[in-house]
Design a protein that fits this description.
α3 packs antiparallel against α7, α4 packs antiparallel against α8 and α6 packs across α7. This protein has a single domain, classed as NADH Oxidase. The strands form two sheets. A seven-stranded antiparallel β-sheet has the order 1-6-5-4-7-9-8, sandwiched between helices. Strands 2-3 form a two-stranded antiparallel sheet. By secondary structure, it is an alpha+beta fold.
């Protein structure tokens, strides 16, 4: 690994000088991955219609911590909707259509992520794999899977925190969405932005009386297979288990 870092340092100026596709006036990439034609779409209620907790921000930040043990109570559907909005909700799309302005910061407003949900115990959802379609504020049901919790736990290196969690967020990244603008520097931006997304999930969970635990240790191939991505043009980058803590 040190040799790779040294190579990157030695060649950085040359790599950076190659510029980006945006500088070459290549058309910007899609803002969202296409949805499978056979996926069932679930309309989500507007966030301003939800009844949510009112914990003050200072208290939310002070209480924030990783939680790993869950009660048998499912995650509420309204809670899920709000957490999706808090982590990847779209506030507006500029007239150019080249970017989105969301509830989390992102370098160049590239927002190179997709949100997958391994829903094991969520009110109103059958167990299975879902994806959040932020542009339309919908859920796409990708497949039903009774053992989704167990399979997700195995993909996360057999972590019981995950296998027992009512819900696990799995974020993928579409690297070219950031590479289009930032070239070789894009991967640093993606890593930074992943932290922004997960921190909003932590604060959102705390405010709702839920708990969560970020997951960085996982089997890349197994998680990519779990969410159905190719591991190259789109790959899993981060995850977080969510539930009602005990």
């Amino acid at each position: 690994m040190k040799d790779r870092r040294n190579w990157l340092k030695a060649n950085w100026d040359e790599l950076e000088a190659q510029g980006s596709d945006q500088q070459r006036r290549v058309a910007y990439p899609p803002l969202e991955q296409p949805c499978p034609a056979d996926a069932e779409l679930i309309d989500l209620p507007p966030v301003n219609e939800l009844e949510l907790g009112t914990m003050p921000l200072a208290e939310t930040i002070a209480k924030r911590e990783s939680r790993r043990k869950w009660s048998e109570e499912p995650v509420g559907f309204s809670d899920l909707v709000w957490l999706l909005w808090a982590t990847q909700g779209i506030r507006s799309v500029p007239a150019s259509g080249a970017a989105t302005l969301r509830t989390v910061p992102s370098g160049g407003a590239r927002h190179a992520f997709e949100t997958y949900l391994a829903a094991q115990h969520v009110d109103g959802l059958e167990p299975g794999l879902y994806r959040y379609l932020a542009l339309s504020h919908q859920l796409a049901r990708l497949r039903l899977q009774a053992d989704i919790g167990e399979q997700t736990g195995q993909a996360m290196r057999n972590q019981r925190t995950v296998s027992r969690a009512p819900l696990t967020f799995v974020w993928s990244t579409v690297p070219y969405r950031a590479e289009w603008r930032y070239g070789v520097a894009a991967h640093k931006m993606i890593a930074i932005d992943a932290g922004h997304v997960c921190q909003n999930l932590y604060l959102g969970c705390e405010a709702l009386g839920l708990g969560c635990c970020a997951i960085g240790a996982y089997d890349q191939k197994l998680v990519d297979q779990l969410i159905g991505v190719d591991g190259e043009d789109e790959l899993a980058i981060y995850a977080c288990a969510v539930g009602r803590p005990v």
